[in-house]
Amino acid sequence: MAIEKKLLVGLCLTSLLLLTACPNPCVNELPLYNFYVEAYFTPEKDSLRVGDTLYFISEFPKRLNPHGSQSSVDYSNANISGSLSVVKLTPRTQFGTDAVFDFEYVSLAGQMYNTRDIPNPDGFQQFFYQESEDKYHIKIAIIPKEKGTYGLGILSTASNGRSGGNGCDKASFNTTVSNTDINVHYLEEFTGLPVTIRPSNGYYFRVY
What we know:
Residues 1-21 form the signal peptide. The chain has two helices and 15 strands.
């Protein structure tokens, strides 16, 4: 489906942007750590009015357990960034429209911004986490300006190393949307097919 291809392209593109550099003194280009973290959208409603506010929130401690490891890691002094896919869904067309500019974005913790330095800036917002004493966190107000049905997808959250002599300690952050209801019925309307596997990183809603 077109929407899945768009998300896959965005995932691959952002991973390349975040995890590669030239020249690079690190022998291993792959992330040293793979962490699992969560994010959520609130208020948890399936529809909003134009001008209402939807919050994108995520926080996790600096000390984390890498996937497949029993030992925790103090992952301090890192720049952790990612991408948010913003797509307008037209029911039963299977074609999503890039919709970054159908919304305003207010950074309350961390930062969300748009860059023209990627091939598809109208479809993806970039963001990075704020580091505090014991955690990383981000809180973004997302304010709709247009009516329609939309899908948000959290993609390719990663760190390209740490400061203080740990520049090769790259990490990927597999982010799951923890909302009880991600309003998957809007995705079913969009595809015209039942969704049998809940998307782990998406959230869907209607603006009226």
